[in-house]
Design brief:
The protein is mostly helical. It is built from 14 helices and no strands.
């Protein structure tokens, strides 16, 4: 427990569970025949509706006063979430997935660096080497170290997506006295509204054909990987130190690579496995302290 009576171990478990769910999204997208921006729009829409129905089933309502007090930060973070998805999809089109992923995962490094400026939280020097090791792991996992060269515009888009993620983290740390459910509903709904114009422009004049498998996967991604996962994600993010959130976020690409290697039979190679071990090791070491410090923090 910390000073506010929050069980940090439980919050870590929530955040890690959400990150693992996010890491499996790419595997399921391989079996969806619709454009990625349509999938993103459906994720935001279905996720927000799912959480509303879940609250109603539990006879709970959205705290309108809490939403009103936090509305500016909710709007900004929702827009940034939608922009993060759009920019990352553009990056995947304009450059390799490896380079796009590498540039996007500069976000945790940026979070740790801007924390003292925007959130006035002390910089934990012990976490900086862990970030460096994790970033090295991302390079090995992505395969960029092999000399792959992608479109600079695509890399720039992925970096812009990373900056949007940084703002999402900052905005969520600014929210006060609002439940994970309420913040998830608003942020997902606003992200869907942000993506909608992009979907209209990209798909103007086309009518998607019905694909049962794709529709079922999208429903699952909306309910489980978005609605449920975002509740876990924002709940954990709200109560964990921001630098812990940054480093644990590196688990997501490892899960993606492991799923592609073991379930999709895509080769990863020795360097990829070494990179995955470095990322997980850095995340673990960053969370370990002396027994005394651990007792004080929990």
């Amino acid at each position: 427990m910390n000073d506010r009576g929050i069980n940090l171990g439980a919050e870590r478990a929530k955040y890690i569970a959400a990150v693992i769910l996010y890491g499996t999204v790419g595997m399921f997208l391989r079996f969806v025949d619709y454009p990625s921006e349509i999938v993103a729009l459906c994720r935001g829409s279905i996720g927000s509706v799912f959480i509303v129905l879940y609250l109603r089933a539990r006879h709970k309502r959205i705290d309108r006063d809490a939403v009103r007090r936090n509305l500016p930060w909710l709007v900004i973070s929702g827009i940034c979430l939608g922009l993060n998805w759009i920019l990352l999809f553009i990056a995947y089109i304009r450059t390799t997935v490896a380079i796009a992923s590498l540039c996007n995962y500069v976000a945790p490094v940026l979070v740790i660096l801007v924390t003292p400026v925007f959130l006035h939280e002390p910089l934990n020097i012990r976490k900086l080497p862990c970030v460096g090791v994790a970033f090295l792991g991302i390079i090995l996992v992505s395969g960029v170290w092999n000399g792959a060269i992608g479109d600079l515009f695509g890399a720039f888009m992925a970096m812009a997506a990373a900056i949007c993620f940084v703002f999402i983290v900052i905005c969520n740390r600014k929210l006060r006295d609002i439940t994970a459910y309420d913040r998830s509903i608003l942020q997902l709904a606003i992200s869907a509204l942000t993506i909608l114009p992009y979907v209209i422009v990209r798909n103007w004049g086309t009518v998607p054909t019905w694909d049962t498998r794709s529709v079922l996967i999208i429903l699952m991604l909306g309910v489980v990987h978005t609605g449920a996962a975002y509740c876990l994600y924002f709940s954990g993010m709200a109560n964990l130190p921001v630098q812990t959130v940054a480093v644990l976020g590196y688990i997501e690409p490892v899960v993606s690579v492991v799923c592609s290697a073991l379930l999709l039979r895509e080769p990863m190679g020795p360097a990829g496995w070494i990179g995955g071990a470095l990322i997980l090791g850095a995340a673990l070491v960053s969370e370990l302290g002396s027994p005394k410090k651990r007792r004080e923090s929990e």
